[in-house]
């Protein structure tokens, strides 16, 4: 949905992003990876680790499996922590949650693959 993409590009804070996600959920388009990628990229660019943390929680709550593009962006962020002491506090909270979140979605993917394999006849 290109209108969601345009709206995502206009989101500059967590409130805007959460409103967009509510709208997308009601429209049935919550799994649009392009929108999630835009939101994640915006948070990373703004160094808004609290908002990034909130986005990951929303992805987990709504069982959204991230694209490789999102995973790569998050991994680059994790290995490049901010030097600013104030930012480090919110970054550390994000990093801790990211660690749990990434394990969670990897386990979910593995469970799905295991379940799928049970139905494959050899």
State the total count of DSSP E strands: 0
Task: Give the CA-based shape.
Answer: globular
How are helices and strands ordered from N to C?
HHHHHH
Structural class computed from helices and strand pairing:
mainly alpha
| Overall pLDDT score | 87
Q: Distance between the terminal alpha carbons, to the nearest Å? A: 40 Å
Structural commentary:
By secondary structure, this protein is mainly α. It is 79% helix and 0% strand. Helix 1 packs parallel to helix 3 (33-46). It is globular and about 40 Å long.
List the helices and strands and how they pair.
Elements: H1 2-10, H2 14-27, H3 33-46, H4 49-61, H5 68-79, H6 85-118
Helix pairs in contact: 1-2, 1-3, 3-4, 3-5, 4-6
Which terms summarize this structure?
disordered C terminus; single chain; mainly alpha; 122 residues; 79% helix
Summarize the structure.
The protein is an all-alpha fold and 122 residues long. The protein has helices at residues 2-10, 14-27, 33-46, 49-61, 68-79, 85-118.
């Amino acid at each position: 949905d290109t209108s969601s993409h345009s709206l995502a590009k206009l989101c500059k804070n967590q409130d805007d992003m959460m409103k967009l996600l509510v709208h997308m959920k009601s429209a049935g388009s919550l799994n649009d990876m392009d929108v999630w990628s835009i939101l994640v990229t915006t948070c990373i660019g703004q160094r808004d680790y609290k908002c990034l943390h909130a986005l990951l929680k929303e992805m987990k709550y709504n069982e959204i499996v991230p694209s490789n593009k999102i995973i790569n962006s998050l991994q680059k962020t994790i290995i490049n922590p901010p030097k600013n002491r104030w930012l480090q506090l919110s970054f550390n909270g994000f990093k801790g949650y990211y660690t749990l979140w990434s394990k969670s979605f990897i386990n979910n993917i593995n469970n799905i693959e295991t379940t799928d394999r049970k139905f494959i006849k050899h």
